[in-house]
Amino acid sequence: MIAYNHTSLDNLLINEEASVALNNELISKEEADAIKNVYPVNLYTPNLFIRIGLFLLTVVIVLMGFGLFWLLTKIESEKGIGTLVLIVSLMLYTALEFLIREKKHYRSGIDDALLWLSIAFMSIAAALLFPYISFLARSVLIFILTFYILLRFGNILISGLVYLSFLAIVFYAVIRLGDVAKIIMPFLLMAISFFVYWLMKKNKHNSRVKYYKTSCTFVEILALVTLYAAGNYFVVREVSNSMFELGLKEGESIPGGWFFWITTILLPIAYIFRGIQKKDVVILRTGLVLVAAIVCTIRYYHHIAPLEVAITIGGIIMIIIAYAITKYLTTPRHGFTHAEPNDPALAGWLQVESLVVTQTFHQTTPVETVDQTKFGGGSGGGGGATGGF
Fold first, then answer.
1. In angstroms, rounded to a whole number, what is the distance separating the alpha carbons of residues 194 and 187?
2. Is residue 321 part of a domain?
């Protein structure tokens, strides 16, 4: 399903693991170079600065070309503009497929620009051609479009859009239940977020999704954030007040507010302890970042100090927690230490790298062959006869 050449992607994964092994001094530079020679990557991927430049250049060229084409066609109706935008989006997608298949572009900046431009133009076309569809229908369209793009190109940010559009589908579908939705919505979103987190964590190392491993990790982080957001007092109160028309005045709390205050404060702390317990860097770092959300939420409803002071206090708390965890893990505990390798999953690939190195440097010693049909010379005599055999 993925658009890029599978062999090149497999070789790219092997080269990335070889680079990680080299950085951790598990193999020598000569061995890493030999691996790259044996497993070449036939993809065009420039450095970051060239990629950014090509991205911006492509965006400018496409937008200027579209503007010129629009002026030449002199289309003014909303439906006509929508049709024109849809045609351009299909042309951009076709160009993207051609660039990947024929020119072997892989995260070159040009393919990134064509990908996002095609999505943007298609979304604008849908909004112009179908202006009166519901938010639920729009969420479904975005989910279908982004899910296909994710399967086809494995873009990390697109995976986030797939997940968020799925949550939007759930939200706008359940909101139709009326008063029941006001009660179950936060708990439903928390349950879905937890399930998605568990699903990504369980399957991201599966070989069947090896091209989407980074996307799975990104969705895993987003699921942890949405799990916290769905139980955060500020988010629940303000969303409920605006969308469910609760009409809460300043100082009034939502029903069951005590529960959401508990989750607001305890969830990041639970993330941190769970990350230490399970040696999970993703949940640990997410918990550390969300400590700032605790401080900001408390500060919003309880004016203990000015905003800049509250943010400073939150930063200090995060530094103290990070320092305490670092000191705690200075001595390795159950195989977990603050001196982590470049790739947390490196240990699982050491055997693969060893096999790669073994295969790379495996040479067969030449065996000297002897021609068994060539006989040496000889002579024989007797009875006056001489000759050679």
1. 11
2. yes
* Domain-embedded: residue 166: no
pLDDT, one tens digit per residue, over 210-245 is: 899 999 999 999 999 999 999 998 888 888 777 766
Q: How many domains does the chain have?
A: 1
- What one-letter code names the amino acid at 344? P
pLDDT digits (tens, 9 = 90+) for 42-82: 899 999 999 999 999 999 999 999 999 888 888 888 889 99
The two three-digit tokens of residue 364, written as one number: 């067969």
Taking phi over 0 as left and psi of -120 to 50 as alpha, with beta for the rest, 333 belongs to beta
CA atoms lying within 13 Å on the CB side of residue 27: 29
In a domain, 150, yes or no: no
Q: Give CA torsion, residues 257, 258, 262, 263, to 10 deg.
A: -30
Choose among 154, 156, 185: nearest CA to 172: 185
Short-list 214, 213, 170, 219, CA closest to 198:
219
Signed CA dihedral, 291, 297, 302, 307: sign only: positive
Asked whether residue 296 is assigned to any structural domain, the reply reads yes
Amino acid identity for residue 17 in this structure: E
Q: What is the pTM of this model?
A: 0.80
Domain that includes residue 282, residue range = 253-343
Q: Contact 66/88 with Cβ under 8 angstroms?
A: yes
